[in-house]
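Below is how a single chain appears once it has passed through the pipeline. First comes the sequence as given, then the structure the pipeline wrote out for it. We keep one example in the README because the format questions we get most often are answered faster by looking than by reading.
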Amino acid sequence: MKKTAIIIPVYNEEENLPILFENIEKINRPEFTFIFVNDGSNDNSLKTLKTAEFDNYLINHKKNLGLASAVKSGIDTAKKLDIDYVVKVDADIQHNLEEIDLLLSEINEEVDFVYGDRFNGKINYKMEFIRKIGNKFFSLLTKKLTKYEITDSQPGFIAMKVELAKKLRMLGNYNYTQQVLIEASILGFKFKQVPITFNKRIHGSSFVSLKYPFKVFWQIFIIYSSLKPLSTFGKLGSLLMFISILISSYQIYLFNAGINEKFIQNDDLVSLLFLFGIQTIFVGILGNLINNLSNKD
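Resulting structure:
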């Protein structure tokens, strides 16, 4: 019997937790180990978590560190257990615990981790247009960065082999879903999506706000550039140098045509772009060397 750690981050979910406990007791799966991570809740979530009558691990962050940090704490605990798989679900009852087996059944020699797909599954409420567009945009961006066939990069419902969980570094502290995808793709793990059911939140409110897209976009850049520095900064530096050469070439043409009196009109800008481009490439080279040394250790 395959053993599985179920990680459930919790932030101000006191009204949803009793329902979640009932759902856990209904599925009655002794091979499942539940790991709750209270991420600095300021309601009675921690008190409620301590009343759980089934076996579980409880991690308490004294202050709110972010969803990715909560997931990382859960994974760090899971890695110490005798398990085969790690699953992450939300505490807000939007995921069906009965569908955990749906994800686990797709993991095999050819698939290392599985994401739930809400958009090709069933969403039991009308998702806000802006949120849906945001999800689609980040799914396309993550698809391009990872080369995975992704239709939903932020389902919050994922399952993976413990081997992958042990290699994840989880560098950011805000959104973890893109982190897992980007890291797994760079590490060479294989991915699959399966349709899932996604329920409407009954109690509480989502952490997603208008700031969310900007935070996620910046974090994706930080994560990708730290894992693939030469590719990221090499391309950025080359682009800056190309712009510098393009501007100078055009201004030289204008000078030869008798339009400009000066050989290069914006010499300070051209020089700055070119030098900054070179420096950016060297940052990528240095980052790549550091990564290679870290991997050897």
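Residues 229-296 form one domain.

See the next section for the split statistics.
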